[in-house]
Amino acid sequence: TPKAGIVGIVAAWVCRVPHRLHTVAGLPVMEAVGKKKKLLLFVEKLTYACATKVYPNSFGLQEYILEQKLTNEKKIKVIGYGSSNGIDTTYFDKTDEIMLQVGHLREQYSLENKFVFCFVGRVVKDKGINELLSAFDALSNKYDNIRLLVVGKLEEDLDPISTESHKILKMNTNIINAGFQNDIRPYLACSDCFVLPTYREGFPNVVLQASSLGISSIVTNINGCNEIIQDNQNGLIVEPKDVDGLYDAMKRYLEEELSQKLSLHSRDDIMKKYDRKVFYQYLLHEYNEVLGNA
After folding, report:
1. pTM for this entry
2. What pLDDT sits at residue 217?
């Protein structure tokens, strides 16, 4: 949202709105190169210059913004433990209704007695889909009791996946391409491990949602992801764009039976730090401070 950010904040500056609060929920510039990177850095710097407060939704984003000297320490702040809005942990819970849907999904896709990995998100290169499909394809040649649920829209024009990934997605019968779903809860809840090998994020809500449902995750060592997941505690962390590292992490889940062990405290941690009601209190306190009412 660089365009929306700069249009809104410059308009507010022109109109002399006293408090101009800009939330940063991910930076496309982090994966950009050349002239595009220079342009996006300029846009971000101008946006922050027109803002009175800048709120990155993760500590990693804050560090990156300060490293690039896009704004100063007085203007920037992470609210609470991070995220833009927290999550509704009551909604993302294994209720009887959700588990009934899980039963239907397991029957529909023949998932009984199968170990299920799950990905939820846009099916694009930046989300690490090429690496995920390559790693799973190799893993499924060794283990026949595993499945990969891919939940999300396949985007052909913007940041498309490779031709080889298209082939794997189509030909590997252990991969279930569920497409876009309005309700992702049953798909997460019927999984044994959530996998998000993304290259960049702000603060990934889907990892919070999986954790709230008691599902541990394999994520990449990037801002946001490595703030929610602690390696070997509530999931595993691998390096971005590392097919071998991702393969090894997924293999560990199978051979060391990590799923139950790493999921034990997933939901409790999310409820303490990222429940929406908790986050709203941090947000309300910050807005009151801005207005001088704290």
Report:
1. 0.90
2. 96
